[in-house]
Amino acid sequence: MVRIVGGGLAGCEAAWQVASAGVPVTLYEMRPVRGTAVHKTDRLAELVCSNSFRGDKLDNAVGLLKEEMRRLGSLVMRAAEASRVPAGAALAVDREVFSNAITTAISTHPLISVVREEVTTLPASSAGEPLIVATGPLTSDALSADITRLVGGDHLYFYDAISPIVLAESIDRSRVFRQSRWDRSISGREGREGHEGREGQVGQVGLAGPGVACGVDDGQGDYLNCPFTQEEYERFYEALIHAESATVHDFDKERFFEGCLPIEVMAHRGVDTLRFGPMKPVGLTDPRTGRTPYAAVQLRQDNLAADHFSLVGFQTQLKWGEQARVLRLIPGLEQAEFVRYGMVHRNTYVNGPTVLTETWQLKQHPTIFFAGQMSGVEGYVESAASGLLAGLNAAALAQGRPTSAPPRTTAIGALAFYASHANPAHYEPSNITFGIMEPLAKPPRGKGDRKVAMSNRALDALAAWLRERAA
Ligand SMILES: Cc1cc2nc3c(=O)[nH]c(=O)nc-3n(C[C@H](O)[C@H](O)[C@H](O)COP(=O)(O)OP(=O)(O)OC[C@H]3O[C@@H](n4cnc5c(N)ncnc54)[C@H](O)[C@@H]3O)c2cc1C
User: Fold this and answer.
1) For residue range 64-108, what is the model confidence (pLDDT) as tens digits?
2) Quick one: angle between helices 75-82 and 61-71, nearest 10?
């Protein structure tokens, strides 16, 4: 039997993998008995912020990671396909349909028992009965204290922030235009390179690089764009830097995840920082002027009914009244009704390289696995991916088989390697990027060709690893 604490993306994926291997699972989830600051429902695998699983093509690393997960029988990927909404070349879902699909699959599985209670101390574990801890960034305080006791002072936390959502009917359609950046779309038209990351990471990060923005445009998809003139942008900027923040004022001291900065923190770094970040206008042409706007805010459909749109990359910690006032200066959002305001939240994770192996086991206590955001990865897909591998390995341990990780040439193996081998002194959770994967010995010339070659190599390596595991 395997015990799993936390019924989020990682815990559910792990439970599915363990049960699929024929090993019984007890899955503990504290909601609705005890809530978190961010979850709103009692559903398993609730998506707490964006409804996007990001890019879905093999020329970006998260697209590759998803394909690997599909080939490993991922429940999260299956539920995501079944709840897909239009989002260009990205995979975005209707959050309710998605978490209902997962809840049904888990709670009706004959080998899985779901227990709705808060776990306050880590349950006992043994090789025959391993434990997976997948309690996520909002792990309850009592359990956090117990985990600190287990892993020592390497148990860390920092702050993260989420983007506001507006009601579709309150958007002034005469002021916005629908377009995908660089005209990249799901129909297969390829524009210029999008970037990747939680929703937008550029470049090679190596083993100690940062992850990326909470909801920054993934460069792909069916977006509503709010175009700014220079004058409109300057008015918005002035209002933003003078608006009142809900909590933190000393931006330098606050430990924000560098890739997920609130817009007001970015704005304080310089007048043009937003124009090169979430408000970048490149790749967009306003059909009314035939020109690229001075700046732009992108709105992405957030649910199947298309009546909610989120402001891409607009995580913020402004007071709610201030958010309404400042964000209504965005062209097209003058009358916006806010379904949800942006907010700041805690993010709890362990220092992976200090405490974890690449099979997601604790070095000092190999019968305990960590998975999900808590294990030091960043993002929905990465959390589910670490849950998948932790689940496969916990099942193997329970059955007396060896644990193992796919090679670093695969995305799922590279993520596990990063979380267990990056520099512990500067450890930051990372999204999957090609930068943390093993480089090609003989890379083709073009950047796009290089990425596709890495993906093809990864899928071959994954198939070989699966064959070895089955032998
Ligand atoms: C506010 C916020 C916004 C985010 N936005 C995004 C985003 O837009 N895109 C993205 O890719 N990633 C985002 N992330 C990061 C991350 O991908 C998500 O948090 C993701 O849900 C992590 O999956 P998980 O399974 O590790 O944790 P979760 O999905 O949070 O699941 C953990 C589960 O454990 C339960 N739990 C906690 N403590 C206990 C306990 N003591 N006993 C029993 N159960 C417990 C919780 O109720 C929860 O259901 C965000 C994170 C936060 C906090």
Assistant:
1) 999 999 999 999 999 999 999 998 888 999 999 999 999 999 999
2) 110
pTM above 0.70, yes or no: yes
Tokens for 277? 């970040």
User: What are the tens digits of pLDDT across the range 342-365?
Assistant: 876 677 889 899 999 999 999 999
Which residues are CB-contacts of 104 (< 8 A; sequence separation ≥ 6)? none
Rounded-to-integer distance, Cα 343 and Cα 91, Å? 24
Pocket lining for ligand 1, CB < 6 angstroms: 5-11, 28-31, 36, 38-39, 48-50, 118-119, 134-140, 143, 160, 162, 198, 214-215, 345, 347, 372-374, 379-380, 383
- According to CATH, the topology of domain 2-157+348-470 is FAD/NAD(P)-binding domain (3.50.50)
Contacts with 287 (C-beta within 8 Å, 6 or more apart), sequence order: 177, 179
Residue nearest to atom 48 of ligand 1 (CA): 8
* Residue extents of the structural domains in the chain: 2-157+348-470, 164-180+222-341
Which token pair is 152?
């020592």
Nearest to 214 by CA among 105, 316, 102, 357: 316
Q: Which residues, including other chains, have CB under 8 Å from residue 430's CB and lie 6 or more apart?
A: 205, 209, 210, 211, 377, 378, 382, 415, 418, 419, 422, 436
The one-letter amino acid code at 106 reads I
E strands, 103-236, where? 112-115, 131-133, 155-162, 165-167, 177-179, 223-228
Closest ligand 1 atom to residue 9 Cα is: 25
Q: Return all residues near 149 (Cβ < 8 A) that are at least 6 apart.
A: none
Pocket test for ligand 1, best of 107, 135, 201 (most atoms within 8 A of CB): 135
Cα(8) to ligand 1 centroid in Å equals 6
- Please give the CATH topology (third level) of the domain spanning 164-180+222-341: Elongation Factor Tu (Ef-tu); domain 3 (2.40.30)
Nearest to 248 by CA among 199, 316, 302, 298: 316
**Distance between CA atoms of residues 452 and 460, nearest Å:** 12
